Amino acid sequence: MVYYAAMDFSVAHFSALFLAPTCVVGVLAAVHATRYLHGEELRRAPWFWFYFAGTLLAMVGVVLSPNMLLFLLAWEAMGLFSSGLVGFESESKASRLATWIYLLACHAGAVCLILAGVMATRPEPCWPAVWYLALVGFGLKIGFPPFHVWLPEAHPAAPAPASAVMSGAMIPLGFYGLLAFFVVGPMRLSVPATVLPHMGWSLLVLGSAAALGGILFALPQRNIKRLLAFSSVENMGVIALGLSLAAWGLHARCLDTVAWPAFIGALLHVLNHAFLKGGLFLGAGSVLRMTGTLDMDNLGGLMKKMPGTGTLFTLNALGLSGLPPLNAFASEFLIYLAAFKALALGQCVLPASAVLVVLSLTGGVAAATYTKVVSAVFLGEPRSDISKVTETPKRMVFAQAVLFALSLLTSFAVAGWAQFKFGYPVLTLTGIFYGLLLGLWAIRRLLPRGKEHPRRPTWDCGYAAPTARMAWTGTAFSQPLADTFEAILRPRVHVKHVKGLFPGDSAIAVETDDAGVTRFWGPIFHVCARLFQRTHLLQNGSLHFYVLLMIIAVAALLIWGALS
Predict the structure, then answer these.
(1) 44: DSSP letter
(2) φ, ψ of residue 441 in degrees (nearest 5)
(3) Less Cβ crowding at N or C end of the chain, within 10 Å?
């Protein structure tokens, strides 16, 4: 049997680790929602709070369930209540479509989990089949490609506080389910060690696809919440890569050198993603409430109008990019160290190399993606009228600030534990980086200040007074990098060419569709629709024909029963 007991991780600690994001992000999102809901939505606020409270209670039930039956009931309730949040703005056609897709994903996942539970209770279960069924069931909630298609639709449709809870705390519960059934938890099954390679390879493949695919499709997005939704897919991929490396470390019996650091790095990334992504969705909600749009190409210059929201959004984005010394750096650093240690020991070389390559590429594209968001939304010249925009109410800024502070405390605590446990200098490096930042801030504060008198040329072709039309939009900023991955993204470019001696306006628009829809589920559903269309021939309205079909079916059953 798998010697999970060697990984000294109690059930109480494990449950608390997933319960904390649910409670913390849920409470702070509720604080933000008290001012987010206003105007026309105030009439429907009781329904929001009903679905919101039901979702949080179901999530708590998932974590605290002592057996598989209660877990599945709480899991299904979580999907039903959260679908009410997705369809809260039911007047919108996009919201109704997103709710329908989300419900399909929830129920399909529940079916796979029920089948996995039934197979696990057989006298001699086929454990690889149980694992893959559970992986599909929980993967539909996590958002592994190609099961992620509900995420980019549901998050833009749901209110921002609901998106913060669903992205920050709900989708990582899929990892809780996998770990609770197969690694540690009150529902842990007696899984043989032969399943570990299946765990390692499947999580490595799905994690790599999620990490790279998620951030690549986040890069060209114009809607802030849609971009953050694809970024959630990317972060779930990072967690899966850490767990994959932990499984390979267990298989190679490298507990303290590979399995433990990778496992703790993955779990720390669960907390970092919960706090940071929750803060980003709340920040996007604040931008929507103050400006009325989430289109980055129509925003800009909001840092002067919304300094609190802009600063916190920037810090959360930098932290989630994995750049030192901010938050996700500590968790990804532990996964990096585990991979390098595996290579140094000559153990699980191929998985460790793949993890290093994927994490490196993902980190670079993530930094470019979040740079695009911050620059297009909060910096530069405004591309629309923001004269009436003001900072959001204090409690909305307070919720974002607390989430960022908690992510800092979590990173420092786990970095200190890692340095004590393994001797890795995570805390030392983090402290040095923060010391440098504080030193630069102090130097900046001590510099003399006065009224600036910029020198400008007399003419300079009009560039002395730049306007928003002279600045790059978010789409223009990311397009050169997106063109590099054109074979994967397959963007649709619409160009309005310049014509005539005195041309009018020219324009270019780039749209990138979700590959999971256009290249996987779309063709499958198209084939199924054609097949079902042909079955309509059986519904010809003739009563005699229906009776004949019933007689044929009964005869076939009798023959099958006699032969068996």
Answers:
(1) G
(2) -65, -40
(3) C
